[in-house]
Every structure is written in structure tokens, then in C-alpha cells.
Design goal:
Elements: E1 6-7, E2 13-16, E3 19-22, H1 23-45, H2 52-75, H3 78-81, H4 100-118, H5 122-140, H6 142-147, E4 161-163, E5 173-175, H7 178-200, H8 206-225, E6 232-233, E7 236-237, H9 238-260, H10 279-292, H11 296-311, H12 315-323, H13 329-366
Parallel strand pairs: 1-4
Antiparallel strand pairs: 2-3, 4-5, 6-7
Helix pairs in contact: 1-2, 1-5, 2-4, 5-7, 5-8, 7-8, 8-9
């Protein structure tokens, strides 16, 4: 008699009227939001803009879902295209079946498109979201628990998974909860990447490569424990060989990238960073410029208002102005009157001088 075990849910879907709420889909959605949230925080910390990770995820997530499904259908084609099977089931992604290898590969294509549209380097973006992807996988694996799938060999350990469904050839019993092993392993991978990124200042895609390499190590031994149908090559499951190949490529990338491009990117997103002008600064600058370069009508209105204010000064204000030594409107008016009078007096002086000269000349002629 088993004293302790992990129970399986009686069903993996709840119906809210005609709307089905599937546990597998919820786990995937939670994982996506977790990856975007953490990736956004890390991207901002590296000098990027808020929202860039989400904008690129709009491209990466759909591509990743398609890639993950394609990998699963291609590697397990007999589940959909063999005798007695319905090929339409290949499109029923909610029933489970996403290959992480295809999801990462095609998701990278979508991310590359999004990065090119934003003008940012793909490796830098991948480094920011790497631990978030690991945590997203940890959440997504619980979707296998809802579907009672992808478990390991039979066991009598206290944490054995109790499978109760007999659908698709399942045999009810107690098995290794490989979904739980992989979920915990992915959490460890995410924490490892965060620590290594802080300790060694990883850049140019090396944090993402570390995530890939570390995940492959765990996937190898977890995959080896599974008992679901799979293609075997030289005694190993296909996914084991895939894990080995991808692990070697990731390690090779880390080595070559460290030699060719050491350090970390100084700028991950053009125009972003602590020294970049914010929207508020841009708005203030725009407002100030408009105030300085207003239209002629606005300037004329301002002048008229100033003149009206000057005319409307009361007596005490005028006295204060006079007492302070500053010229008043009356002083200015008197000055203009004097200036207008002086040219007339100056013009009279030459006329008087000319008359005097003529008189003297006449007296001299008579003598």
C-alpha cells in the first residue's frame, strides 16, 4: 500500500459554459507571462527600453508554438498519420505535444525578425530572456501533469506520480514524475544563468547559450527515464541525441564567442539608457520651443497685453516707478517732444546767422 504519492488531476479541462478552460494552456500562458516579465526587468537593467521584450515576444511566441508543434508532429508522426489515426489531431495543440527544440529554434527566427524591426542585436535580447525562458518551461511542464503524460518508469518512491488514466495505452500505476524533475531542473537552470550573468558579466548571447547547455544536461537524464513511445537510435531516444548535439553546439558557441567578442554589449538598444531623453523631457523641450518661437499673432497679442497693463497702472504704482529712478511714460513722452523740438531750433540758428552776414555785407558795400 502506497503511503504517499503525487495524485493526478481527475481531468485536465474545466468548462465555463461552452468555453473549455484547459490546464495545459494555462501553464503555457503563465510561462509566457513569466518569461516576458523577467526578461523586461533584465532588459531595462542592461539599458533597454520598457516594452521592447514584449514587442519582440509578439513575434517569438507564435513562431515558437508553431516550431514546437512541428517538431513534435514530425518526430512522432505515427501518432497522427498512421493507420487508424486522424491527421486533424496534429493541430490540436491543447491536447499536449510541444517539442522544446523546435520551439526554441523557430522562436529564435521570430525573435530575429522582431529584433531587426527594432534595430537591436538578437544575442543581447536572448541573454535578457534566457532565465525567464527556463522558468517558463518550469511552469509549462505542469501542463503534462494535467494531461497525465510524459512520466517515467514505475517506482514506489514517496513522490511517485499516480497515473489513473488508461487513454492512449496508459497503464494506471505509480511512476517517476519526470514532469516534476524537469520543472525543478529548469528552475535551477534559470537561477544558474542569473548567477553566472552577474558573476561573469555574460554578453553577446553567452547567457542564452549557458541556459541551453545546462538544460540539455538535465533533459538527457530525464529523457532517459521516460517510458512513452519514442524513436531510438543506437539504444538512445531521439531526444537524447538531440540534447547531446545541442549541448555541444552551445558549449562551442560559448568558447568561440568569449574569444571573438569578450565582454558585454555597451549599448543594447539605440536611443535608450539613463542618458537618453525621456518622453517628459521631450514634451517639455517641445513646449519651450513653441513658446519661444510663437506666431506673430501670439507675439502681437502679448505686446498689446503689456501695453494695456502699462496704461492701466494706478497712481501709486507710477510714483513707485518714478521714485525708483526708472523712466516713466511721461518722461519718455517729454524726451520725444524735446527731440522733436531740437531740430527746429537748430534749423533756425543757420537762418539767423545768414541774415546777420547779409546785413554786414550791405554795410561794408555802402562804406
Amino acid at each position: 500500500m502506497e503511503l504517499a504519492f503525487i495524485p493526478s488531476p481527475s481531468r485536465g479541462v474545466l468548462h465555463l459554459g461552452p468555453i473549455p478552460l484547459r490546464g495545459y494552456a494555462f501553464c503555457i500562458i503563465i510561462g509566457v507571462f513569466l518569461a516576458v516579465w523577467l526578461g523586461n526587468r533584465r532588459w531595462i537593467a542592461r539599458g533597454g527600453r520598457t516594452g521592447t521584450v514584449a514587442d519582440i515576444a509578439v513575434w517569438a511566441v507564435p513562431f515558437g508554438l508553431v516550431g514546437g508543434r512541428l517538431y513534435h508532429v514530425i518526430t512522432d508522426y505515427e501518432l497522427y498519420f498512421s493507420a487508424g489515426r486522424d491527421w486533424v489531431d496534429a493541430f490540436k495543440i491543447w491536447e499536449g505535444g510541444l517539442g522544446i527544440w523546435g520551439a526554441i529554434a523557430l522562436g529564435a527566427v521570430g525573435a530575429w525578425i522582431g529584433c531587426r524591426r527594432r534595430g537591436i542585436p538578437l544575442p543581447a535580447w536572448a541573454d535578457a530572456v534566457a532565465p525567464g525562458i527556463a522558468f517558463a518551461q518550469a511552469a509549462g511542464r505542469w501542463g503534462n501533469w494535467f494531461n497525465q503524460e510524459l512520466y517515467g518508469r514505475a517506482t514506489d518512491l514517496p513522490w511517485a506520480l499516480h497515473i489513473t488514466s488508461s487513454t492512449d495505452g496508459r497503464v494506471p500505476g505509480y511512476y517517476h514524475p519526470t514532469f516534476l524533475y524537469e520543472s525543478l531542473w529548469c528552475i535551477g537552470v534559470g537561477l544558474l544563468v542569473i548567477w553566472a550573468d552577474r558573476r561573469f558579466t555574460l554578453g553577446h548571447g553567452r547567457a542564452f547559450a549557458l541556459y541551453v547547455a545546462a538544460y540539455c544536461v538535465g533533459r538527457f537524464w530525464i529523457e532517459y527515464m521516460r517510458v512513452d513511445d519514442a524513436h531510438h537510435i543506437l539504444g538512445l531516444r531521439l531526444n537524447d541525441w538531440t540534447a547531446i548535439g545541442v549541448f555541444l553546439l552551445a558549449v562551442l558557441y560559448i568558447v568561440l564567442s568569449s574569444r571573438m567578442r569578450p565582454g558585454r554589449e555597451a549599448v543594447v538598444e539605440p536611443g535608450a539608457g539613463p542618458d537618453a531623453p525621456s518622453d517628459a523631457d521631450t514634451s517639455t523641450a517641445s513646449t519651450g520651443t513653441e513658446g519661444e518661437t510663437g506666431t506673430d499673432a501670439e507675439n502681437a497679442d502679448s505686446k498689446d497685453a503689456a501695453d494695456a497693463g502699462s496704461v492701466g497702472l494706478d497712481k501709486p504704482a507710477a510714483e513707485d516707478s518714478a521714485g525708483s529712478g526708472e523712466p516713466t511714460d511721461a518722461d519718455a513722452s517729454a524726451a520725444r517732444t524735446e527731440s522733436a523740438t531740437e531740430p527746429d531750433e537748430a534749423s533756425d540758428a543757420p537762418s539767423a546767422s545768414s541774415a546777420s552776414s547779409r546785413d554786414e555785407a550791405g554795410s561794408a558795400k555802402k562804406s
